[in-house]
Design goal:
- This protein is mainly α and 133 residues long.
- The chain has one domain.
- The chain has 2 helices and no strands.
- Helix 1 runs antiparallel to helix 2.
- The mean pLDDT is 81.
- It comes from Ponticaulis profundi.
- This is Tektin.
């Protein structure tokens, strides 16, 4: 009888140990699943961040190129305005009204071109800002 109690105790201990083992094994599996999911999420977030950074660098490069191009265009137009106004200033003594009218129209045309470039630049900047938001 005493031997039977001892066997029951061993079986209960084994049963408790097996249950504890199964709980621990399940907990490890759960933790591993969470770690795998978080690892996948981190990988996807890193990839999205890399793509976003690449896109931002490309946009910055394009903006820089555009600003340089617009600056050169504006500089050329402003030099034209400056040269034309200098000619007008030198020739005002000649009393040549036709020539002065012609040069004034040239200045007005150049100013209109500058305004168009500025408006386009501002419009593109607004569109880029909207696309970023």
């Amino acid at each position: 009888m005493n031997k039977l109690k001892h066997t029951d105790t061993i079986e209960k201990t084994d049963w408790v140990s097996r249950q504890r083992y199964e709980r621990e094994r399940q907990a490890r599996m759960d933790v591993e699943a969470v770690l795998q999911r978080r690892s996948r999420e981190l990988h996807e977030a890193r990839e999205a961040l890399r793509k976003s950074l690449h896109r931002e660098r490309k946009i910055a490069r394009l903006q820089s190129q555009f600003i340089r191009m617009a600056g050169r265009e504006l500089d050329t137009l402003m030099l034209s305005i400056d040269a034309t106004s200098a000619r007008i200033a030198r020739n005002t003594q000649s009393q040549n009204a036709g020539w002065i009218r012609n040069k004034c129209m040239s200045i007005q045309t150049t100013v209109t071109r500058v305004r168009v470039i500025i408006e386009r630049t501002l419009h593109m900047a607004d569109e880029q800002q909207l696309n970023r938001d």
